[in-house]
Amino acid sequence: MPKNLLIATFSDPDRLIRAVRNIRRKHIRIYDVYTPYPVHDLDEAMGIRRSRLPWVTLMMGVSALVLTLLSEFYTAVFDWPLNVGGKPDNSTLAFIPISFELTVLVGALATVAALFLRAELYPGKRSGGTVKDATNDTFVLIIRRRDASFDASKARLLLEHCGAESIEEKVAEL
Are 74 and 114 contained in the same domain? Predict the structure, then answer.
């Protein structure tokens, strides 16, 4: 489904942040911002919330820990009990290394999978709005037209007022 994009480029981060704040003040939703290096206060200016990715890691790690301990207990006590040197069947200390390793492994793999799903990074995906020097020396602000009430001329004037060097309109498959 084609989407109309308004792509503005800036030469310095101060103008970019000022444009982001003004655009958000006018209740225009920002699609994305590209910068050549991390810009302080940009997340706050864009209104980006903290990531929920650590919660995915925690939940999947705890799930892996519980399932590993349950399977080890079931195997050692019910399925295949062995008398090794008179130790009890439920020798929890012997379960710790593999439980730890599987907790870390499942937590890490779940984090990577959640990141790829959330960021929509998958093979064959076409990039939306691209600018030639977007990550070399140019700061790029992309606004996506979501509905018919969006006035591109007002957004263009606002971006020009904030110091945009160039503004172009593109139609992209997103």
Answer: yes
Co-location of 112 and 57 in the same domain: yes
Number of domains in the chain: 2
DSSP code at position 11:
S
The contacts of residue 150 (CB under 8 Å, 6+ apart) are: 28
Q: Which two tokens stand for residue 166?
A: 């160039």
Ramachandran assignment for 110, one of left (phi > 0), alpha (psi -120 to 50 degrees), beta (any other)? alpha
The one-character DSSP state at 165 is S
Is residue 143 classed as helix, strand or coil in its secondary structure? strand
Q: Which domain holds residue 78?
A: 53-118
* Interatomic CA distance for residues 77 and 72, integer angstroms: 8
Q: What is the pTM of this model?
A: 0.70
One digit per residue, pLDDT tens: the chain, 174 residues? 556 788 899 988 999 999 999 988 988 888 889 899 999 989 889 988 889 999 999 999 999 999 999 999 999 888 888 877 777 777 788 889 999 999 999 999 999 999 999 888 888 777 655 666 676 788 999 888 776 667 778 888 888 888 888 888 877 665
What CATH number is attached to the domain comprising 156? Answer: 3.30.70.260
Collapse the DSSP code of 122 into the 3-class scheme (helix H, G, I; strand E, B; otherwise coil) and give the result: coil
